[in-house]
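Side project, low priority. Logging it here so it doesn't get lost.
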Amino acid sequence: MPRDLELVGRVISDEQEWPRSRVVVRQGRIAAVEPWDGPAPSRALDAESGWIIPGLIDIQINGAFGQDFADPAADLETAGRGLLRHGVTAFLPTVVTLPWEQYPAVLANLTQRPAGGARPLGVHLEGPWLAPRYHGAHPVEHLRAPRWAEVETLLGLGPVRMLTLAPELPGALEVIQRLSQQRVVVSLGHSGASWDEGRVALLNGARAGTHLFNAMPPLHHREPGLAGALLDDHQAVVGIIPDGIHVHPAVLRLVARLRGARRVVLVTDAIAAMGMPPGSYTLGERQVLSTRREARLVDGTLAGSVLTLDQALRAMVQLGGCPLPLAVAMVTSTPARLLGLEAERGRLAPGLVGDLVVLGPDLRVRWTVQEGSIVYSMEGAAR
């Protein structure tokens, strides 16, 4: 149930760091964010030398804590409760390419609202409308060219909020235009599109790029390709996986400087192995072997990650050389804005949902607050 809460500490929101402030949550919504010079009120959480930031939002996560979201039996509450420990208060469960007949059961499962844990904001369909040559860990035998009738069928089965497709496929342009009219975020990825094909897709309603540089041709000075089209566009938001494996730290730094916090979203692309011991897990129909650092198919192909979003935040600061206020925006206000939810979450401002995270000076999650209730404490006392 929504609760009342007060917090005191330095605040980071909207790409800015504010001096010591008091954040007040009433009935699950932020009631005030105001300067505070005195000691913390007796009943307030004191961030001390840390920071108060909005709850984190992961828009590309295939699974977590043993749950694969492409499995119709996946338990969203189990995954969501685990995500709270990493400061994630909202997420888009992401579904990889499956046999067509499996989508109804999977999407039906993802329409359920769990009793607890991080809040699902809808579904991210990553496939099956991807380019066979750039299938990555997706089973190539289940890929297909986009046809609006099929896409519309899946839209009717569940709360699809984001969809990744390859813009060069026959029929893709019509699908992009129709999806944009229905306010579904179209993200371009798993694609061998040329610069021209990527540019046309962006001009016709596509708004984002899925895990930039991965599952697409490399940026070339004479053929910039899809990566070049996404980086060249003034509005496109690019997702990137900052685990030090998918993208080199030097490239993280380049992207941060070129795109800025309003055009970069940090994603985990995590699989069921996130938060679990090393071993064998599933990603849709594929077997994935995970270590504490990475996840790969049996043939060695990267298959998502075991990254958590708070780790991604720290990596963008430590490996990507990004100032903390900008890195925080990449996991809060920017994903919220991309999804059209900036009036609800992603910032610390009166009227918005009271989802907050308190980071310690080491940038680790000390407390997670959801609608004014403390749902995770680093000391181990969730209330």
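Brief comment: Residues 249-259 form the longest helix (11 residues).
Revisit when time allows.
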